[in-house]
Write a structure and sequence with these properties.
By secondary structure, the protein is an alpha+beta fold. The protein has one domain. Helix content is about 40%, strand content about 30%. The protein has helices at about 5-20, 25-30, 90-100, 105-120, and strands spanning about 30-40, 40-50, 55-60, 70-75, 80-85. A five-stranded antiparallel sheet has the order 1-2-3-4-5, with helices on one face. The termini are far apart. The mean pLDDT is about 95.
């Protein structure tokens, strides 16, 4: 696969993620090291996360149908969380899988507890 194409796709995916996802949400993932890569013969963006629900790598790969496929990878498994995401859905899908979950009330309670712990230290 052409290196320049892989770099271009990864840069586009990163820029779209940063433009469509609030920065406080991205920071809550503990993101480190955005890297252009090839995954399952697709150009992709890979980055490490240290979220509440998942710790490991997130891979956002552009498939042949112009959708993003999103994978969670750690030492135990590789899991495809979607194979059909539009660019403006990527951040929400990742957040639900690695940080906030599907129970918004429970997540809000967790955030309040974390905030209270910060204020009392």
């Amino acid at each position: 696969m052409d290196k320049e194409y892989v770099l271009q796709v990864a840069e586009t995916a990163k820029n779209q993620l940063l433009a469509t996802t609030p920065m406080n949400i991205i920071l809550s993932w503990g993101v480190e090291k955005f890297i252009a890569t090839v995954f399952n013969e697709m150009p992709a963006l890979r980055f490490s996360v240290n979220g509440r629900l998942f710790k490991g790598f997130v891979i956002v790969a552009l498939n042949g149908s112009d959708y993003y496929e999103i994978y969670l990878v750690n030492y135990q498994e590789t899991k495809c969380i979607t194979d059909r995401a539009f660019f403006d859905e990527v951040g929400e899908i990742i957040d639900r899988s690695i940080e906030s979950g599907t129970n918004k009330t429970e997540y809000e309670q967790f955030c309040r507890q974390q905030w209270n712990e910060l204020l009392t230290k």
